[in-house]
């Protein structure tokens, strides 16, 4: 196992895509050597980035359409869900500051139903992803309601 290098991690000690590429390049080269019919012996970082981007685009297109995505190696399932605003963080809820007229009092987010060892991590959408998700909500699309879902109290810790 390789030691952590500072260029592979950002300021908050999260693995970057560049770091992931540098960790995986040795295995990629070995796999390409096993396939002599391929002319390419390595993959550049820009090609790696395009492959990962395409993969995530396919996953999130599926999520935006209300479907779930099962991750490989029993890492759980991701889906977009909605919950009532006051259920999970009532101390932070201030009715006068929340404009919930178009969401009818629901909070929409990406929920990763992960095994216990991965529950410390979460998936957060960026600005563009949130806009795509809420555009569908504003047009009347309904995501699954997890307000009454117990799930060992796990969803309460996420939101």
**Overall shape:** elongated
Largest sheet, described in full? 3 strands, antiparallel
H-E string: HHEEHEHH
Residues in β-strands, percent = 5-15%
Extended strand count? 3
Radius of gyration: 20 Å
Annotation field: number of helices: 5
Strand order of the largest sheet: 1-2-3
Give the end-to-end Cα distance, rounded to a whole number of Å. Answer: 34 Å
Number of domains: 2
Instruction: Return the structural class.
Output: alpha+beta
Mean pLDDT: 78
Low-confidence stretches: 93-98
Amount of helix: 25-40%
Description of the molecule:
The structure is a single chain. With 159 residues, this protein is an alpha+beta fold. The chain has two domains: 43 residues, no CATH class; 105 residues, no CATH class. It is 36% helix and 11% strand. Strands 1-2-3 form a three-stranded antiparallel β-sheet. A hairpin with a 6-residue loop joins β1 and β2. The longest helix has 20 residues. The radius of gyration is 20 Å and the shape is elongated. 9% of the residues are buried. About 4% of the residues have low confidence.
């Amino acid at each position: 196992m390789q030691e952590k290098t500072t260029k592979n991690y950002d300021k908050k000690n999260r693995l970057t895509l560049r770091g992931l590429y540098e960790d995986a390049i040795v295995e990629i080269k070995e796999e390409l050597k096993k396939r002599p019919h391929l002319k390419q012996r390595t993959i550049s970082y820009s090609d790696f980035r395009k492959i990962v981007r395409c993969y995530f685009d396919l996953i999130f297109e599926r999520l935006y359409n209300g479907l779930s995505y099962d991750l490989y190696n029993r890492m759980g399932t991701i889906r977009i869900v909605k919950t009532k605003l006051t259920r999970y963080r009532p101390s932070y809820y201030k009715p006068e500051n929340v404009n919930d007229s178009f969401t009818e009092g629901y909070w929409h987010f990406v929920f990763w139903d992960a095994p216990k060892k991965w529950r410390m991590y979460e998936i957060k959408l960026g600005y563009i992803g949130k806009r795509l998700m809420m555009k569908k909500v504003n047009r009347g699309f309904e995501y699954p309601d997890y307000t009454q879902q117990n799930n060992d109290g796990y969803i309460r810790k996420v939101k």
